[in-house]
Design brief:
511 residues, mainly alpha, Serine Threonine Protein Phosphatase 5, Tetratricopeptide repeat, DNA Cyclobutane Dipyrimidine Photolyase, subunit A, domain 3, 5-stranded parallel β-sheet, 21 helices, globular, disordered N terminus, binds flavin-adenine dinucleotide
Amino acid sequence: MNPIVGNYVCLAMKTQPKTSLVLFRNDLRIHDNEALLEASKADRMIPVYVFDPRKFSATEYGFPRVGPHRIRFLLETVRNLRKNLRARNSDLVIRTGHPEAIVPELAREYGVTEVFLHAEATSEERVDEDALETALVSLSPPDSGASAGIRLKKFWGSTLYHPDDLPLDPDQVPDVFTDFRKKVEKGSRVRETIAMPNTLPPCPVDDPGELPALETLRALPDHFLWDERQHDLSHKPVLRFKGGEDAALERVRGYIWDGDHLKRYKETRNGLLGADYSSKFSPWLATGALSPRLIHEQVRRYEKERVKNSSTYWMIFELIWRDYFKFVFIKHGNALFKMDGIRTSPHPVDWRYDQHLAGAWQRGETGIPFADANMRELLLTGFMSNRGRQNAASFFSWNLRQEWRIGAAWFETLLLDYDPCSNWGNWAYNSGVGNDPRQRHFNILGQADRYDQNGDYIRHWIPALHNAPASHIHQPHSLSAEDQRRCAVQIGKDYPRPIIDLEASYERLKS
Ligand SMILES: Cc1cc2nc3c(=O)[nH]c(=O)nc-3n(C[C@H](O)[C@H](O)[C@H](O)COP(=O)(O)OP(=O)(O)OC[C@H]3O[C@@H](n4cnc5c(N)ncnc54)[C@H](O)[C@@H]3O)c2cc1C
């Protein structure tokens, strides 16, 4: 053996830095991030985010899977993650393409020995994980046996309760929420958030890449006008959601501590108007910019330092709902993406897809103001209250008798907080094919009277009805011609007549 080469190899082996790669997906934060923490134990670490064009494709109904609100929020979130990684001596490598091709390529180039990520609950994401794992297995890490492959290490970080801490097997998760909640409240505990280092290992990649332009991701159908320049929102008391961990932590501080809103959450959570009737944590939870365990810790601290009451309990209660849907998806796989969901008996509604009815619902032009105001808010802002979502969904599948999955797909496009489990799980639940043993539909007029008695919410999002009196605002077509003149609105011209006979639709549901 050439002694010089031999020495060189020896030295190289000794000084070969250990390089890890952490792939971010829906865990776009630094705090409470186990995959990042474990990856940061290497000498060098490559944090990566991949914009996968497959996720931005069109739905079978002709609209994009990810609409402009969500794209904007995602870009802000990724940008903020990069900023925070850079502040800790690291970086974020941004690429566009397929993770199962890009990650192995980076791994080969930089001698990565281990890849880290957070596992997800839904099948599409799990298929991605499998594809990546398969691609990595065929690569051999430097200085290892040729067949060793690069290991993919998966962690779990999206729920309040860790699946390993559940008092039951995932396939035994009850199909009724209350049963699940009682079991976890009694038999489990929420882990503490994970402390993260202030400084991270350096990232060896020379070209970290740039964020893709919004326009290249956006596939905007012309007939949906959601361009904010055409709708001045500046005077609307809505929360301006900004993507990223910094904004998430700011919102937690603002809602819980500065605004002291948590103590009244249970009373205000069914609100419709304004920034603070509910926490609005959901968009940051969905992108993983905010950890549910961090919220849990803040709530417990608030209970110690300020007040402990039914509202503080209810915030955790709602987060258990979020957990529940994730575990339901792990149990039932793709069933909740199917038309019959987990229902075993025939559904009373014979669902259809009528583009005229569905399109009117999407645009907020059904002539039923409570549905329309909510759908317009969604279209223009990417957010809708929980009360609004329940009513909009129920109206779509029970009254308009449209196939619920079209509605769910539209919410997927627009909701800033889109989360496959919460969205499809709630839609299935509301449409009578999910985790609700009852046949539940909402009486939308009754709901409108109860939650928007004076019609303020309607006036807010439907300017044409601005002068309509509270007595008629939820059924403006019942205004006489004289009243319409007085209110400066012409029903059928400035605001549509109802596209269905609501009363008849409820009668039909009774039979
Ligand atoms: C048809 C329909 C679709 C929905 N789609 C989504 C979705 O894609 N993503 C999403 O995060 N939520 C979804 N929800 C649940 C709920 O409406 C939102 O989580 C909530 O309105 C978000 O506002 P908030 O953060 O102010 O909630 P808060 O009332 O402040 O609640 C705190 C947190 O608890 C969780 N939570 C509250 N209610 C629910 C619920 N019913 N199911 C699951 N988690 C809940 C959320 O993470 C929320 O951020 C949907 C509900 C319905 C009826």
